[in-house]
Amino acid sequence: MDLNTMAGWQEFAKLAPLGTALIAVSAAIIALFSLRAQKTIARRRAAIDFFLKTDMDAKMIEVADAYDTAVAKFAKMADINEFTNWPEYWTIITYLNVHELLAIGIRRKVFDEGVCYGYWNTELKQTCAKLARLIEHQHSSHDEPYTFKQMIALNQRWCSRHQFWQRWRD
């Protein structure tokens, strides 16, 4: 194609719409990748903010300390119905609500699951193991089968076959 002549330029001009479409498609693809990256960063920041809040907030530190005491007391209790009348019961429920909030945030894709797994998996597994009786009691005695449902589902998923994003932890 000889661009020195008018006919050469006219043939080249016929390709201009194709070039424009190619540039537009490329810009759309770049924009989609940029949006995806921003969502990932936002989820990770939200997870880190959540953990900073739970670990640095004075009230949450008090709840965590009271939770440890309450779990020790709960482990010694034979009759769970008696324990539900004690104030320590509500301390444990408050702490379990934090776990449930985290699980809901992961399910709704507010928090990045990889970050949450890396920081919280051991805590969640230990909590579900220590308080299995209490959670089961909540489900059966209060006719609330959905209490802590998301927390239990998240724990089961984290305890099951490892996903690709869990492999880096080892």
Q: Radius of gyration, rounded?
A: 27 Å
User: What's the overall average pLDDT, rounded?
Assistant: 87
Number of strands: 0
The share of residues in extended strands comes to: under 5%
Q: Determine the structural class based on helices, strands and strand pairing.
A: mainly alpha
- Number of structural domains: 1
What's the shape? Answer: elongated
Summary of the model, kept short:
With 170 residues, the protein is an all-alpha fold.
Tags for this model:
mainly alpha, 170 residues, 78% helix, 8 helices
Outline the structure in words.
Helix content is 78%, strand content 0%. It is mainly alpha-helical and 170 residues long. It has one domain (43-169). The protein is elongated, with a radius of gyration of 27 Å. The termini are far apart. The model has no long low-confidence stretch (mean pLDDT 87).
Write the layout of secondary structure elements.
Elements: H1 6-14, H2 16-56, H3 58-76, H4 80-83, H5 87-107, H6 113-130, H7 132-141, H8 149-159
